[in-house]
Every structure is written in C-alpha cells, then in structure tokens.
C-alpha cells in the first residue's frame, strides 16, 4: 500500500467511527476498536477518567448512546500522521447533541460543543482499528474578559 492509500484508509475508518456514533450503531463501534489481547485500548471522553480495556471502553459507548437521543459530528482540522503500522488522527469535533425530550416534545434541547480529539489507530490484518481515543473540551472565551479589545 502507498502512503496516500494508508492515509485515505485511516480517514475512512475515522469517519466511520463518528458516523456509527451518529447512528447509535454499537456493533460497528465495537468492530472499529482494536481487539488484540496484546494491546490494551484506552479512551478518555471529555470530563471522564481514563477508561482502559475493551469492556470499560465499549461500556462507555453503550452508556453514551443509551442517554443521547441525537448526536451529530462535524469534523474540522483533520490531520493524519503515519508511522509504520500506527496512525494518529487529530481533529476538532463540532458536536450537536440532544438529550431526552421533555413535555411531549419530539427532541430535547440541542446543545453545541467543541471537542479536540486524538484518535490512534493500528493496522491489523482486518484493516485499521482504533487503539485509543482522547477527547478534550475546548473552552471558548466570552469576549468580555479584561483587556479584550474586540468589544465595541
């Protein structure tokens, strides 16, 4: 495989990961994570402690999907780096999500959030698989801080 082909393959698996989350497809999420007894997978969701091992990581996705009525990811700033059979993807997750509906509404209130993510992939005989995911919230400024001269 060429470097360009590897980058395309990693980008495709990275995109498939977020699309599976949007659909709430737990089986696909499970298939996309590395399942290798010699390597422990890890995951850090924004505000969560480090989750280690397939059981903990996959349980966290089941919990998130069970408690999220709607989620959509708009990925920006996607960068892929390759080193042999390991790939690193950094991106910004522009997330729109909604919780359970209230008072007979079809969908709960929608909330936007920015998260920067690092996804580490390993090449396997079955293709690229997620080895580690780390998401960190982006704290946005309100524009009213002292010394901010953007205010009119």
TrEMBL record:
<protein>
    <submittedName>
        <fullName>3-dehydroquinate dehydratase</fullName>
    </submittedName>
</protein>
<dbReference type="InterPro" id="IPR037401">
    <property type="entry name" value="SnoaL-like"/>
</dbReference>
<feature type="domain" description="SnoaL-like">
    <location>
        <begin position="10"/>
        <end position="138"/>
    </location>
</feature>
<dbReference type="Pfam" id="PF13474">
    <property type="entry name" value="SnoaL_3"/>
</dbReference>
<dbReference type="InterPro" id="IPR032710">
    <property type="entry name" value="NTF2-like_dom_sf"/>
</dbReference>
């Amino acid at each position: 495989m060429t470097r360009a082909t590897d980058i395309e393959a990693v980008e495709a698996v990275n995109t498939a990961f977020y699309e599976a989350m949007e659909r709430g497809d737990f089986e696909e999420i499970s298939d996309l994570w590395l399942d290798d007894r010699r390597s422990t997978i890890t995951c850090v969701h924004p505000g969560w402690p480090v989750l280690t091992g397939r059981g903990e990581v996959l349980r966290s996705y089941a919990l998130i999907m069970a408690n999220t009525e709607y989620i959509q990811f708009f990925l920006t700033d996607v960068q892929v780096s390759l080193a042999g059979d390991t790939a690193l993807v950094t991106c910004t997750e522009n997330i729109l999500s909604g919780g359970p509906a209230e008072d007979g509404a079809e969908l709960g209130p929608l909330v936007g959030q920015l998260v920067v993510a690092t996804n580490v992939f390993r090449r396997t005989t079955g293709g690229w698989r997620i080895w580690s995911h780390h998401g960190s919230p982006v704290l946005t400024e309100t524009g009213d801080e002292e010394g901010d001269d953007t205010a009119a």
